[in-house]
């Protein structure tokens, strides 16, 4: 069981799947980590994005990767509109309202999907889904290798956006001190909606990168959302590099947990990390002072 | 002054109260089953299936079959001895045993006369136990754990077979196929899901295989859901078994089959036992993975004209003819026949009638119906293989020979 070849392959597989966790967590780290919005609808919106990719492929024969320029802006607009006209309006500035609104939104989205798409498992049948790349001893599917590269690019792009642009400064200002930001002339509601939009756009990207190798059902969000919250806490609230590294660490933990403890017991690795991080480093690996 | 948004925190009490309300909405415990207004004289049958959650698709397929049966029976005059029509009362177990049991409790107090369900053995155990308190007849449509009929409950009946005999038949069949090809296969790996269904089936399979001289190289358990099968594929590849035996639910079944192909794991056959994902949809959508896969499962009788007609009817509605459809169809027929012969809605009388059922299995490849402790001894599962037929991938019955529509292809071509 402990042959180096198997360990190395498990490591590479963990990294590849961790990239997908990172992709889902990148949007959440902005919404939850920076703006402290507990977005219970994150998983349901991922599911919606996956169905969008599925429909674009089945109805318009649009390849999931070519769907990126459609789905990402589309979900940015959806996120913006959702925040500006639903979440933000109904929340009336109260965090607990946001919690209930996003929970309600997820119930509506999941049951809507159940109604329109039925509970059936939907997959895309793409020829290149079986193309393999040999990385050392490991065989990695082309879609997973692409997700790996894309998650790093998206993570760095978000980091650059936050650190180097005026928009990033405005988001950080709003997150730190809303009243102060408003006094400086920043349109707080607009910035909140833009941030939420960017977070949801990340889910659009994750869906495009995930669909070539995964399936979608109305409850698929549950498969990823707990891991996304764990990744954000592990990486440090609001840290994009943290979300990226956190995703990889969780992928590797899951991979090795499965290898040493069996796929069933191996699942305890992820909640264990969550508890350990909360106990010993509540700010996360790359988080600043809370 | 208007309260600034940043000053609004959540107090502990508010969080507790609102989380509880949210959780209630999320789990649906505030919901009531869709109990229709009772008609003056109807026999109400409670459906306990997963209508939401990860197993909602098979749950919906079960409902479809059950409702078709009710339509057919009512169109033919309903329960004639009672002058009553059948009426479906739909429940949602959410795939959870405790919810399944509470649905039974709610329906029992609302006057439901009998139950069918539950797709999952674990839910079936809890729900039929709850029905036993009222002695209400419970017809298991899909649920393979033999504990369902071995608890001495007088109200539980099962038309389809259980995993004890299914695993034994499955291994006999595998031996025959293997011997027919000159016995090239000698070893197997079992990959199973972690609940009662997968664990119980895998345990029995492993024992049977060893008895027949197979080397069982590993029995690998996985969680529901499992997001990534790369490591399992890796382990299988390193062990080089001749046969891979999956025992799991639909999502994981497809993901595992896909990963085995991606990771280029060599084996002579994928021989699933009660493979949740082996159906016409899988064959249509993933033909390059599905071809030559074998599944040992509940299946319709391909030689029955009635079954072929039913398949056409289901496909005409845009649905797939999966085993849940006809298993629940027959489960309702069993109950209706029980009420008919009992000539009463009294649970004791109906249970007695069900225990002496000789119902024509009609669309299923079964022998004559004979109930022993609630189990239909005539029930049999069959082996099906995905084979090309007329330029299209189709599911062909390859065992037992009496119902076979094609010869097995084993080992699969490289």
Give your account of this protein's structure.
The complex is a heterodimer of chains A (290) and B (414). The longest helix of chain A is centred in the first third of the chain and has 31 residues, at 4-34. Chain A is globular, with a radius of gyration of 19 Å. Chain A has helices at residues 4-34, 42-60, 68-91, 95-117, 142-164, 166-176, 178-183, 188-210, 220-235, 240-265, 269-280, and strands spanning 132-135, 138-141. The model of chain A has no long low-confidence stretch (mean pLDDT 88). Chain A has 290 residues and is an all-alpha fold. In chain A, helix 1 packs parallel to helix 5 and helix 2 (42-60) crosses helix 9 (220-235). Chain A has a two-stranded antiparallel sheet. With 414 residues, chain B is α/β, with parallel strands linked by helices. Chain B is 42% helix and 18% strand. Chain B has 14 helices and 14 strands. In chain B, the strands form three sheets. Chain B has a seven-stranded mixed beta sheet with strand order 7-6-8-9-10-13-14, sandwiched between helices. Chain B has a five-stranded parallel beta sheet with strand order 2-1-3-4-5, with helices on both faces. In chain B, strands 11-12 form a two-stranded antiparallel ribbon. In chain B, strand 4 (138-140), helix 5 and strand 5 form a beta-alpha-beta unit. In chain B, helix 3 runs parallel beside helix 4 and helix 13 (323-342) crosses helix 14 (347-355). The interface between A and B is large, with 51 and 53 residues.
């Amino acid at each position: 069981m402990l042959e180096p070849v198997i360990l190395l392959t498990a490591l590479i597989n963990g990294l590849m799947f961790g990239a997908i966790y990172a992709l889902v967590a990148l949007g959440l780290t902005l919404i939850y980590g920076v703006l402290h919005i507990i977005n219970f609808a994150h998983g349901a919106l991922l599911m919606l994005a996956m169905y969008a990719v599925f429909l674009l492929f089945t109805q318009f024969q649009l390849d999931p990767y070519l769907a990126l320029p459609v789905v990402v802006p589309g979900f940015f607009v959806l996120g913006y509109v959702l925040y500006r006209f639903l979440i933000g309006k109904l929340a009336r500035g109260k965090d607990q309202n946001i919690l209930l609104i996003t929970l309600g939104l997820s119930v509506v989205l999941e049951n809507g999907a159940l109604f329109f798409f039925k509970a059936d498992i939907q997959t895309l049948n793409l020829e290149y889904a079986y193309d393999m790349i040999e990385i050392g001893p490991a065989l990695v599917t082309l879609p997973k290798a692409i997700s790996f590269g894309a998650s790093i690019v998206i993570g760095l792009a978000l980091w650059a956006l936050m650190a180097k642009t005026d928009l990033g400064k405005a988001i950080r200002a709003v997150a730190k001190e809303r009243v102060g930001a408003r006094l400086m002339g920043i349109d707080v509601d607009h910035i909140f909606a833009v941030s939420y939009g960017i977070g949801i756009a990340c889910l659009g990207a994750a869906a495009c990168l995930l669909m070539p190798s995964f399936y979608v059902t109305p409850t698929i969000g549950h498969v990823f959302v707990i891991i996304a919250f764990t990744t954000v806490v592990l990486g440090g609230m609001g840290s994009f590099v943290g979300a990226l590294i956190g995703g990889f660490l969780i992928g590797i933990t899951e991979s090795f947990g499965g290898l040493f403890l069996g796929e069933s017991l191996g699942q305890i690795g992820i909640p264990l990390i969550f508890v350990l991080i909360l106990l010993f480093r509540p700010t996360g690996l790359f988080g600043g002072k809370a | 002054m208007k309260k600034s948004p940043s000053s609004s925190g959540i107090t502990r009490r508010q969080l507790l109260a609102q989380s509880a309300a949210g959780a209630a909405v999320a789990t649906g415990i505030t919901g009531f089953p869709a109990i229709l207004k009772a008609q003056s004289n109807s026999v109400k049958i409670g459906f306990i299936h997963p209508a939401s959650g990860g197993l909602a698709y098979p749950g919906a397929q079960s409902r479809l079959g059950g409702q078709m049966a009710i339509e057919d029976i009512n169109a033919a005059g309903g329960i004639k001895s009672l002058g009553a029509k059948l009426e479906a009362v739909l429940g949602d177990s959410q795939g959870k045993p405790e919810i399944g049991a509470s649905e039974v409790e709610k329906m029992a107090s609302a006057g439901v006369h009998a139950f069918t369900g539950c797709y999952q053995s674990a839910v079936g155990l809890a729900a039929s136990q709850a029905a036993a308190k009222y002695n209400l007849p419970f017809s298991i449509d899909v649920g393979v754990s033999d504990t369902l009929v071995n608890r001495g409950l007088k109200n539980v009946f099962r038309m389809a077979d259980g995993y004890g005999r299914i695993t034994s038949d499955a291994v006999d069949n595998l031996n025959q196929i293997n011997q027919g090809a000159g016995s090239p296969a000698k070893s197997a790996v079992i990959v199973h899901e972690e609940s009662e269904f997968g664990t119980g089936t895998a345990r029995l399979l492993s024992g049977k295989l060893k008895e027949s001289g197979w080397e069982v190289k590993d029995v690998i358990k996985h969680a529901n859901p499992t997001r990534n099968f790369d490591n399992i594929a890796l382990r299988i590849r390193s062990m080089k078994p001749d046969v891979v035996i999956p025992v799991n639910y639909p999502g994981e079944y497809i993901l595992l089959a896909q990963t085995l192909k991606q990771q280029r794991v060599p084996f002579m056959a994928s021989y699933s036992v009660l493979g949740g994902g082996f159906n016409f949809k899988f064959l249509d959508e993933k033909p390059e993975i599905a071809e030559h896969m074998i599944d040992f499962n509940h299946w319709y009788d391909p030689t029955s004209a009635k079954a072929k007609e039913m398949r056409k009817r289901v496909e005409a509605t845009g649905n797939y003819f999966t085993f849940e459809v006809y298993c629940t169809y027959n489960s309702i027929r069993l109950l209706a026949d029980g009420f008919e012969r009992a000539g009463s809605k009294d649970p004791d009388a109906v249970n007695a009638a069900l225990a002496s059922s000789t119902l024509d299995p009609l669309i299923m490849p079964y022998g004559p119906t004979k109930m022993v402790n609630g189990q239909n001894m005539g029930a049999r599962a069959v082996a099906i293989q995905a084979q090309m037929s007329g330029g299209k991938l189709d599911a062909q019955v390859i065992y037992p020979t009496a119902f076979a529509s094609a010869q097995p292809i084993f080992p699969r071509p490289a």
